[in-house]
Amino acid sequence: MDTPKDAPNMASTSRPASWSDLLTRDYAASLFMVCMGVWLHAADSLLVATMIPAIVAEIGGARLIFWTVALYDVGSIVAGVTSGLLAYRYGIRLPMVIAAGIFAGGCLISAVAPNMNILLIGRLFQGLGGGCLTAISFVAIGTLFPKHLMARAMGAISTLWGVSAFLGPLIGGLFAEHLSWRGGFLFFAVQAIILTGWLTTQPNDRANAPVTVALSRFPMRRLILLSTGILAIAFGGSDISFPRTGTFVVVGLTCLFLFLRLDTRSSENRLLPANPLGFGNSVSSGLTMILCFAAATIAFSVYGTLLVTKLHGLPILAAGYIMALEAIAWSTAAAILSGLHERKDPKMIFGGICVVAISIAGFAYSVPYGPVWMIVVSAGLQGVGFGMAWTFILRRMAMVVKTDDRQRVAAAVPTVQRIGFALGAVYIGMVANASGIDSGLQSGNLEAAAQTIFLASLPLAAIGLFAAWRFVRA
User: Which residues, other chains included, contact 52 with Cβ-Cβ below 8 Å and sequence gap of 6+?
Assistant: First the structure.
């Protein structure tokens, strides 16, 4: 996986890069590596979301469903921050081997889990491994490919992400309905093991690593505070009781406050821009918008398949594809609209965010009461809205932020989004448990709990809408 010696000369050519340039002996192995890393992470999320009804039916644990997302995202956040420094210090191969091994181990733990608690341990390791695989894959694109091929490599990854949105639910549905959900985890464990074995046969690329980045201080204390804050709130929501839940929530919020304070005061390797949340400036408004809408839209990812199959009698595979429709609509809208001029960014961002908010209201009615076609339309609208807005958010931020802070802001967008997913899963899990989703599954009376879950997402969307308005007016 060494960068070919002729890469600098190739980068200087004026001929546009073609797919055939990427699929040569020099770059095909590197392309396979980054695509496998992204595939395992992207397809795994939809696979598990699709298999949730079968998992709960066999081992129970409905009140812990939100942990499958929260733990995965906590692992991804920690791994995403860690992996960049590891890749620059040790090269691409060794961190990738470790990440693929951790991911495989997490899948194997989930596959043999006798109860939901053990499965959640597996999900944490899957998040650590999958997050690290994805982050290192993006580092590898900038390290192993010449400049004129980077866009092609990113295009291959974007295409693969869309393919995973289609194949993830298909694989999950086939295993859950016709074989066993445990086989779905084993299927991905085998792929990760194959990737691990293949990587060990590749040449090391440590010489490509810039030494300056390796000397950066690792933000261990801040990562511990961030993870502890999310997990403490999640513990409080697992079993709703006033003193227990209140104590854990206060501890969790305190840890998150300390994380933000320490990160803002850090002079180097800040994870987020200074004062990242609020409405005081364009960057903080934009990041607040991202956080709120990541949290507001996670409810369907966590509970959508379970509720649709139980309330409307759909097969698991069909419910999984309703969920996948969001990702497909997102990719399609982004591809169609990506060529618009930057002067249209404010309208596209705010318009897209409004469409997402409408889709949440649509879920609040259609998931508990139907009809099914309205659930499908709501999922499609959510994807289209995100495709309209997210395509232009980074470009908009680059216009309003100082030049020397653009890289940090760009890196903060996916990090804040992951934090939003994790916190949103914890919040909506608390709402679901308080509304009696576990007893509702046993009695078959789920309509009220389903409606409460999605109605509870609307206040987050309202805050996000105000933040979006502030962001586009900058």
Answer: 65, 68, 305, 306
First to last CA, the chain: 44
pLDDT tens string 118-169? 998 898 889 888 888 887 777 777 677 766 666 666 667 767 776 777 778 7
- pTM attached to this predicted model: 0.78
Given a contact cutoff of 8 angstroms between Cβ atoms, the answer to whether 349 and 399 are in contact is no
Cβ neighbours of residue 204 closer than 8 Å, sequence gap 6 or more: 91, 93, 94
Both tokens of 335, joined, read 């591809």
Are the C-beta atoms of 177 and 315 separated by less than 8 Å? yes
Integer Cα distance of 123 and 418 in angstroms: 15
* Structural tokens at position 382: 């959510």
Helices 372-400 & 458-472, crossing angle to 10 degrees? 30
Q: What is the pLDDT of residue 378?
A: 93
Total residue length of the chain: 474
Task: Give the number of other CB atoms < 10 A from CB of residue 25.
Answer: 7
Enter the tokens of residue 22.
Answer: 């990427």
Helix (H, G, I), strand (E, B) or coil at 268: coil
Q: How many CB atoms lie within 10 A of CB 471?
A: 28
Query: Of 297, 417, 426, 313, nearest to 364 (Cα)?
Result: 297
Query: What does the pLDDT average to over 376-382?
Result: 92
The percentage of residues in the chain with a pLDDT greater than 90, rounded to a whole number, is 15
**Residue 63 to residue 239: CA distance in whole angstroms:** 8
CB 408 within 8 A of CB 273: yes
237-241, 319-323, 336-340 — which is least confidently predicted? 237-241
Half-sphere exposure of 194 (CA within 13 A, CB side): 11
In the three-class reduction of DSSP (H, G, I as helix; E, B as strand; rest coil), residue 17 is classed as coil
- Whether 250 contacts 101, CB under 8 Å: no
Say which amino acid occupies 239: D
User: 434-449 pLDDT, tens per residue?
Assistant: 887 877 776 667 888 8
Comparing CA positions, the residue from 305, 311, 71, 76 lying closest to residue 168 is: 305
| Bond before 146 cis per omega within 30 degrees | no
